[in-house]
Amino acid sequence: MDIISHGLWGGIAFGRQRKIWLAFLFGVLPDLCSFAPFFIYTKLNNIHFHRAPPLDIIPPWVFTIYDVGHSLLFFALVYMLLLKINKGLSLYSLAWLLHILLDIPTHSAEYFPTKFLYPVSDFIIDGQPWASPLIWYPNLALLLTLYGLHIFSLLRDKRKVSADNIGQPEKIFFNG
User: Is residue 136 helix, strand or coil?
Assistant: First the structure.
């Protein structure tokens, strides 16, 4: 799945009532960790490509970082650590788990397959590529629907609060 969709899924699933940006960040983290350094590497080495980069120009370290970031085992270790350090942060980190689970069926064996049991196993599922219309359009439709409903709900709640507080300025300012 594309990186923006991962962030949006993480945000809507784990950030609606709280800091949506933090859930978004955890949602993009597995791809950001591998592809941000690669992007910098291509700029520093004057490497150009259009669309997805060909596999032969991608250094091996990118694949290693990608595999670690998409490992359920590595995620579990980080999640347990976050539970001990900051339980609130561990909730947002579930967007990372969602990222991995969404990638398993939406990556083909030909291009960045998801080795979700790495480093114990290189087992992958040869899924339907996320750029395929069978994945892309339903993904887009679902995200638009869910965020539309979320925005509608926020606006409805805001109108309700405003209507309840008409003629009662102390409730608006002091929440009392």
Answer: helix
pTM beyond 0.70: the answer is yes
CB atoms within 10 A of CB 98: 19
What is the average per-residue pLDDT within 32-47? 97
Residue 54: phi, psi to the nearest 5? -65, 145
CB-CB contact of 82 with 89 (8 Å):
yes
End-to-end CA distance of the chain: 46
What's the one-letter identity of residue 41?
Answer: Y
Q: Domain map of the chain by residue range?
A: 3-131, 132-176
- State yes or no: pLDDT of 174 exceeds 60: no
Beta-carbon contacts of residue 176 (< 8 Å; ≥ 6 apart): 170
Name the packing angle between helices 20-44 and 60-69 (round to 10°).
170
Strand (E) or helix (H) holding 37: helix 20-44
Scan for tokens 């910098």, then name that residue. 40
- What is the rounded distance in angstroms from the CA atom of residue 149 to the CA atom of residue 74? 34
